[in-house]
Amino acid sequence: MTNGESEIQIETKKNHDLSISYQAITELRLLNVRTLVTYDIYLVGHAKLPDAAVRSVLQAIWVNIDKLPQFHPGFVEWTKARAVDPEVTLPYHPAAVRYFKDAGAWPAKMDEVQKKLLAWKP
Prior knowledge:
Layout: E1 9-12, E2 18-21, H1 26-30, E3 35-36, H2 51-64, H3 94-102, H4 109-119
Antiparallel strand pairs: 1-2, 2-3
Helix pairs in contact: 2-3
């Protein structure tokens, strides 16, 4: 990391998979998490993904969000305004909730949305 900002290195492969290598996230390397697939603006991780890994990935995206579209067209739709959406169909990771609250991007109404999503039993 330099100047207090997160650094992110993104590389695209011939098959258009997007691999993100974030220098400060040893947890992701230990879990062998290498490829992220996006659908709309969802970034999905396992429920047991360590809080520090979630926070680090979100921080890297948050501070570099304007730079991401040059690496993959899917990132054009990723904006800070769309990071928290009351129409979401998957619950947010607890560390993501804390991150977005700290960033001022989590409106109070999202607590009820999150609560309903966590209570849903298929």
